[in-house]
Design the sequence.
């Protein structure tokens, strides 16, 4: 069957329809400084003031977090074990908080590359919260998009003590004995690029269109 322009357009549009329905994914990368080390975690090459790098990726449409990781300077890394849901609060939809506020919490169980003083696979959490004293971070409880993130300051991210790893040791006299907490020193937010396979597909469509055009001219 001879390839026609109509054939190419119909085929490409039918394949691109699912892509157009996909929501944008956003990746948040940050560097941080350790501010607190639980007694069970001390002496493993990480001290207060040590640096770490973290990131998480989520779908703006569904709020599903597909990637979440932390990497410490001592070589310890932990990655999200399974997708989790992003939690966004806005104004009065803020649970038991006494003041109207905006915030975000992402957390979940992880799989680590090694033990930390005999402990492994901590729960990871990253959050931010800002009271609405002089405005708000965003205007709804939908997962924040790139514009929403443009309203977030570094001070807002470091407001609450919601950034930590917790190794979930039971029956501790102090709940922080198995936690490591940190403050964010820098962060960046960007849309996740489309997979390379999609660009190859689009290139093929354009090439087919070019072939058809040359045949028509001939």
Sequence:
């Amino acid at each position: 069957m001879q390839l026609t322009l109509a054939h190419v357009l119909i085929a490409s549009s039918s394949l691109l329809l699912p892509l157009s329905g996909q929501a944008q994914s956003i990746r948040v990368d940050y560097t941080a400084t350790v501010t607190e080390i639980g007694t069970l975690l001390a002496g493993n090459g990480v001290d207060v003031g040590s640096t770490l790098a973290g990131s998480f990726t989520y779908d703006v449409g569904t709020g599903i977090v597909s990637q979440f990781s932390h990497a410490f300077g001592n070589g310890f890394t932990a990655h999200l074990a399974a997708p989790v849901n992003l939690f966004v609060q806005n104004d009065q939809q803020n649970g038991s908080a006494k003041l109207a506020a905006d915030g975000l919490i992402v957390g979940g169980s992880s799989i680590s590359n090694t033990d930390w003083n005999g402990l492994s696979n901590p729960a990871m959490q990253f959050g931010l919260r800002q009271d609405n004293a002089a405005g708000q971070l965003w205007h709804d409880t939908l997962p924040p998009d790139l514009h929403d993130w443009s309203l977030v300051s570094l001070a807002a991210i470091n407001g609450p003590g919601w950034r930590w790893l917790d190794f979930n040791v039971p029956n501790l006299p102090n709940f922080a004995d198995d936690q490591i907490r940190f403050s964010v020193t820098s962060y960046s937010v960007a849309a996740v690029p489309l997979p390379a396979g999609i660009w190859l597909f689009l290139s093929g469509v354009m090439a087919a269109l070019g072939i058809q055009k040359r045949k028509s001219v001939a």
Remarks:
- The two ends are 18 Å apart (CA to CA).
- The CA atoms of residues 69 and 110 lie 8 Å apart.
- Residues 5-22, 196-202 have pLDDT under 50 and may be disordered.
